[in-house]
Amino acid sequence: xxxxxxxxxxxxxxxxxxxxxxxxxxxxxxxxxxxxxGPLVFPGVGSAASGMAAVRARGFDALLRAAAASGTPxxxxxxGMQLLLERSEEDxxxxxxxxxxxxxxxxxxxxxxxxxxxxxxWNTVAPxxxxxxxxxxxxxxxxxxxxxxxxxxxxxxxxxxxxxxxxFASVVGRGSLVATQFHPERSGAAGAxxxxxxxxxxxx
Length: 204
Prior knowledge:
The protein is an alpha/beta fold. The chain has a single domain (3-200), classed as Class I glutamine amidotransferase (GATase) domain (Rossmann fold, 3-Layer(aba) Sandwich). The chain is 24% helix and 33% strand. A hairpin with a 5-residue loop joins β5 (85-88) and β6.
């Protein structure tokens, strides 16, 4: 059973419905003690500082670290992706979970005059070879964000997207962790394919 983490910062209804359309019956939990095993989905929207505080308050920081150590598949989405990194520039600097080396940094509109921040709408992702991205070419996915991941190691960037003068990592991953800056639950057939791949993935 796939489990969705509810820490008060996620668009949980859309995520749950996306998995239900694939024939799954996801469980939504509000504390780490409720987890009964199986793949984890770590969604999120909003600010890094408040999101990280809620993650710690509900014990999800320890749960996600244990999942990464044990090889349990984890899918981060949007803020959930950003919080997997070591730190974020948002809110004056916020420490993340540190499960993927690197930082979350802000777009600089000066690099591309006329580009709007936040980056909102459909944009193309160029994928690397990874089981969760299997069968996907350069597909368009739905984005809403002002900050982006800058992984310290190039191998952790599993997909890239061009925006605001940056070619940024729109998919990151390491071990049993994979995470997207975009919202697969709002990305039509391509997003559904990614979620279906995640359900089949064994985390290695």
